[in-house]
Write a structure and sequence with these properties.
There is one protein chain. The protein contains 11 helices and 7 strands. It has 271 residues and is of the alpha/beta class. Strands 3-2-1-4-5-7-6 form a 7-stranded mixed β-sheet, sandwiched between helices. Helix 3 (60-71) packs across helix 6, helix 3 crosses helix 7 (147-153) and helix 4 packs across helix 6.
């Protein structure tokens, strides 16, 4: 891990810990703002630790957790210690079923559920209620947790809950935009649109491509992670450099289903 880099404190489906470990050289020198419109666990942000950044996500609970940590991480840690001591199957479902008062308690609940639910998945029902079942992990706090450093890294970050397009529109000359939209690599050769359209529609894929082109035209550097599929390669055409990388798929519940797959990196404005 690079000097000063931090490990993300959340597990996240599609997280990019593997990318910063396997291909750290793909990230350009930071001369301007760092912009990430699909923050998730923000693995790339915590790896780079840019002095100026915009992190955004449509998940309001996620952004509120980042904001609470930025403001004061200590009460969140105190709540997490209690969750750690009391964790059990019945306790998990009790916490899952109630939303506490207070931003720090809610942030701790978010982290607790993330660390003890099935595979770090975030899913809500039609009423907007988190409904992921308990997983196999029983540890809530880890010796290498660095919530104080996480808080420091977030101090000068603009945290937004927003659609991706207005966030990418903020990019200007010398900014670096890292874009990691929702997708799965499990069906890149079988029903790509069918499976991935549920996560992120094809209209959104096209809108994302157009926003990325505009950002490059304004002088920003853009890096996009996406599924390795001919439709994505065709979409970005000759405007971007396209690379394929192997990675392990870890979303399957069965170990036998966790196989290697390919993902695509799309680079623009690196010249």
């Amino acid at each position: 891990m690079a000097e000063g880099a931090l490990k993300p404190f959340l597990k996240w489906a599609g997280g990019k810990r593997w990318l910063v470990s396997k291909s750290p050289d793909v990230f350009p020198p930071l001369d301007g703002n760092y912009i990430e419109p699909f923050a998730g666990s923000a693995a790339v942000f915590f790896f780079l630790r840019p002095p100026k950044a915009i992190l955004s996500d449509m998940n309001a609970d996620l952004i509120d957790t980042y904001r609470a940590l930025r403001e004061n991480w200590r009460p969140i840690l105190a709540h997490l210690r209690r969750h750690h001591e009391l964790h059990s199957r019945s306790y998990y479902y009790d916490v899952r079923g109630r939303i506490p008062n207070g931003r720090y308690a809610r942030a701790a609940r978010f982290i607790y559920l993330n660390r003890t639910c099935w595979n770090g998945l975030y899913r809500v029902n039609l009423h907007g209620e988190f409904n992921v079942p308990i997983g196999t992990k029983t540890t809530v706090l880890f010796p290498d947790d660095e919530f104080g450093e996480i808080s420091k890294a977030l101090q000068y970050v603009d945290l937004c809950c927003s659609d991706f397009e207005p966030i990418i529109e903020k990019a200007k000359k010398d900014d670096f935009v890292y874009i990691d939209p929702p997708y799965t690599i499990n069906h890149t050769n079988n029903g790509f649109i069918k499976y991935n359209d549920v996560l992120f529609s094809w209209d959104d894929q096209q809108r994302l491509c157009e926003a990325a082109v505009r950002a490059v035209d304004r002088g920003a550097k853009v890096l996009i992670s996406n599924a390795c599929h001919h439709s994505i390669r065709t979409l970005y055409g000759d405007r971007f450099e396209v690379r394929s990388l192997d990675r392990a798929s870890r979303i399957s519940g069965a170990v036998s289903g966790r196989r290697k797959g390919q993902e695509m990196l799309i680079l623009g404005g690196y010249e």
